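User: Here's a structure from my thesis project, written as structure tokens. My advisor, Dr. K., wants to see whether a designed sequence matches the one we expressed. Can you design one independently, without my sequence as a hint?
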């Protein structure tokens, strides 16, 4: 309860501190507008036309089911990869042997193109929710696993010796000694995986489902409707930024507040 209250109180200060991110977004919009004027509305519609098309899709109600389908699939795969990757990476990092054995496997999984996983998922699960969820999970898992593994292996040896000397219980050792340090590695991997999850979900929907933003993009491509395509892209990016900067980043700042107290 206290964590939730501190998080809510910290949102205004956090938003105010995000002026740099807002400035970079404004710069991106300016470059987009410049490109639209250079190439014309047929090739690259400007941000005003894209946002106007998105507003029409939202007001008509046509966008919400597609956005919900994509959000459900990407967040389901992301949640599964966070749970499995964080837990297994932390456990693997406790043992040198397990870490050495798992590193080549993680390298293979990272090197596997998501489109290859998508083709296999289509053969295994067919068209439906399972294909994009599995593709997101298997593509994000090694990124999070590697973050948890690296965080566990780089913990200060003196802290390990102190925990061992005082014979701390396993739960206290994991949550009070390892977890604060591992989180500094986990959060960047979570944020990277979150961005991947949306991209991969849209890609999977393009080939495997009849609904979602990916399927909507396939329709706009067939109609040569560039403005609608950009509107869907803007919608997905908006949801991604909202989840990252309104949920993950405030939690990260709250969890890592102990660093400011000890610095």
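Assistant: Designed independently from the structure alone:
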């Amino acid at each position: 309860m206290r964590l939730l209250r501190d998080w809510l109180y910290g949102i205004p200060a956090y938003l105010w501190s995000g002026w740099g991110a807002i400035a970079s977004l404004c710069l991106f919009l300016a470059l987009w507008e410049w490109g639209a004027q250079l190439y014309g509305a047929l090739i690259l519609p400007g941000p005003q036309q894209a946002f106007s098309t998105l507003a029409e899709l939202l007001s008509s109600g046509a966008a919400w089911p597609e956005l919900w389908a994509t959000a459900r699939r990407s967040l389901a795969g992301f949640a599964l990869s966070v749970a499995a990757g964080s837990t297994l990476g932390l456990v693997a990092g406790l043992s040198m042997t397990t870490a050495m054995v798992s590193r080549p496997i993680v390298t293979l999984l990272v090197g596997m193109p998501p489109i290859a996983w998508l083709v296999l998922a289509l053969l295994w699960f067919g068209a439906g929710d399972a294909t994009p969820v599995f593709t997101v999970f298997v593509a994000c898992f090694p990124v999070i696993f590697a973050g948890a593994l690296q965080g566990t292996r780089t913990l200060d040896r003196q802290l390990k010796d102190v925990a061992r000397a005082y014979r701390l219980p396993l739960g206290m050792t994991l949550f009070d000694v390892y977890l604060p340090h591992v989180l500094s590695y986990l959060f960047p991997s979570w944020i990277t995986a979150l961005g991947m999850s949306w991209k991969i979900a849209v890609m999977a929907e393009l080939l495997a489902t009849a609904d979602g933003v990916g399927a909507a993009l396939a329709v706009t491509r067939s109609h040569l409707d560039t403005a609608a395509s950009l509107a869907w892209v803007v919608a997905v990016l908006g949801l991604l930024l909202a989840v990252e900067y309104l949920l993950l980043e405030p939690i990260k700042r709250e969890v890592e507040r102990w660093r400011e107290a000890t610095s």
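When you compare it with your expressed construct, this may help: Residues 170-208 form the longest helix (39 residues).
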